[in-house]
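A reminder from the course coordinator: this example appears on the midterm review sheet, so study it carefully.

Given structure:
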C-alpha cells in the first residue's frame, strides 16, 4: 500500500506543478502543502510502526511472554506514540478534506440545504475529541488501543460514522445530477462524463475509504486478530483516498460550486451547432455569469438548479419558443428585450 501511496503522491505533485498557479477554490500552494503533509503522516506511521515491530521480534524476541507481551508492556514508548499520532492525525486530515469538498459542492445550494452539513461537522468534532482522549489514554502504560476499548471503540466508531456520512453527503447530489443529465441528454455526454461517471462519484466520495473503515470497525469491535491487518491497511487507504481527490482537482476534473452551470453551458453550446436557438444560448451565458457572481457572495441562488430539461425543451421549440425562466432569481434579474 505504501507503494501505491508513493506513486499517487508523485502524480499529485507533478499535476499540481503543471496546473494553474492559483484557483479560486483550491489554491495550488495549499494543495501542495496538504499533499506533502498526508504523505509524511502515512510514511511516518509505516516507519515507526515497522521499526517497533522489528525491535519486538528481533532484539526482544526472548522477552518473557514473547514479542507481543513486550509490545504491550512498552506501548507507551515514544515510537509507538508517534505511530499512533500519525494514524489519528492522518484520519483527521483525510476527513477534513472530504468535509471541505462537501462545502465546495454545496456552496451554491439554498441555505436550508446547506444545513445538512451540520451533521458531518458535529461528527468530525466528536472524532477529533475522542481521538485526543484515546492518544492520552494509550500514552500511559499498560493501555493499548487493543485493550482500551472504552475509548478505542468510540473513536473508531465516530471516525467510521463521519466517513460514511460525508460520503453520502457528497455522493447524493452527484447521483441526482447524474440521473437528471442521463434523463435529459442520454448517455455518452462527453462534457458531463468526467464528473458523473460511477468512477468519478466513487473517488469524489472516497467510498473505498469507507469500506475499509467499516470492515475494520467490525473486526475491532469483535476483538478479532484480523483487525491488526485492517488497521495497517486503513492507515494507508486514508492517505490514498485524498490523493485521488487531489489528483482530480489538479486535472480540473473534480466537482466545484460552478460545475453544474459549466456542464450545461458547454452542452448548450454543442446543441447550438445542431439548431438550438441563439436566444436560449445567450440566456444560458448570462445566467451562468450571474450564478458565478452570486455564488461568490454566498446568496441563496442555485445555479442551474437543473432546469436543463426546460432548456432542452426550449431547444426543441426553436427560435420562436418562449423563453422559460431558468429560475426565479434568473427570471427576475436577466430581462430579455427582443
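Designed residues:
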Amino acid at each position: 500500500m505504501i507503494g501505491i501511496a508513493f506513486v499517487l503522491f508523485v502524480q499529485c505533485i507533478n499535476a499540481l506543478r503543471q496546473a494553474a498557479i492559483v484557483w479560486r477554490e483550491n489554491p495550488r500552494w495549499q494543495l501542495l502543502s496538504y499533499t506533502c503533509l498526508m504523505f509524511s503522516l502515512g510514511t511516518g506511521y509505516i516507519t515507526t510502526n515497522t521499526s517497533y515491530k522489528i525491535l519486538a521480534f528481533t532484539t526482544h524476541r526472548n522477552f518473557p511472554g514473547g514479542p507481543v507481551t513486550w509490545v504491550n508492556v512498552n506501548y507507551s514508548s515514544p515510537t509507538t506514540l508517534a505511530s499512533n499520532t500519525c494514524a489519528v492525525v492522518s484520519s483527521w486530515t483525510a476527513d477534513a478534506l472530504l468535509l471541505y469538498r462537501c462545502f465546495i459542492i454545496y456552496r451554491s445550494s439554498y441555505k436550508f440545504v446547506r444545513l445538512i452539513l451540520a451533521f458531518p461537522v458535529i461528527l468530525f468534532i466528536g472524532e477529533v475529541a475522542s481521538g485526543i482522549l484515546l492518544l492520552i489514554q494509550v500514552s500511559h502504560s499498560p493501555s493499548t488501543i487493543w485493550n482500551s476499548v472504552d475509548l478505542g471503540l468510540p473513536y473508531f466508531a465516530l471516525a467510521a460514522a463521519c466517513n460514511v456520512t460525508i460520503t453520502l453527503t457528497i455522493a447524493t447530489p452527484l447521483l441526482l445530477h447524474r440521473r437528471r443529465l442521463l434523463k435529459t441528454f442520454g448517455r455518452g455526454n462527453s462534457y458531463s462524463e468526467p464528473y458523473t461517471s460511477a468512477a468519478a462519484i466513487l473517488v469524489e466520495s472516497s467510498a473505498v475509504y469507507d469500506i475499509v473503515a467499516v470492515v475494520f470497525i467490525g473486526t475491532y469491535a469483535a476483538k478479532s486478530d484480523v483487525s491488526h491487518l485492517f488497521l495497517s491497511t486503513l492507515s494507508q487507504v486514508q492517505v490514498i483516498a485524498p490523493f485521488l481527490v487531489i489528483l482530480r482537482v489538479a486535472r480540473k476534473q473534480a466537482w466545484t460550486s460552478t460545475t453544474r452551470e459549466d456542464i450545461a453551458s458547454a452542452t448548450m453550446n454543442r446543441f447550438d451547432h445542431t439548431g438550438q436557438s441563439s436566444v436560449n444560448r445567450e440566456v444560458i451565458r448570462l445566467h451562468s455569469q450571474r450564478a458565478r457572481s452570486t455564488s461568490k457572495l454566498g446568496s441563496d441562488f442555485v445555479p442551474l438548479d437543473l432546469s436543463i430539461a426546460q432548456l432542452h425543451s426550449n431547444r426543441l421549440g426553436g427560435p420562436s419558443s418562449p423563453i422559460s425562466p431558468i429560475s426565479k432569481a434568473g427570471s427576475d434579474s436577466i430581462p430579455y428585450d427582443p
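Residues 149-185 form the longest helix (37 residues). The radius of gyration is 25 Å.
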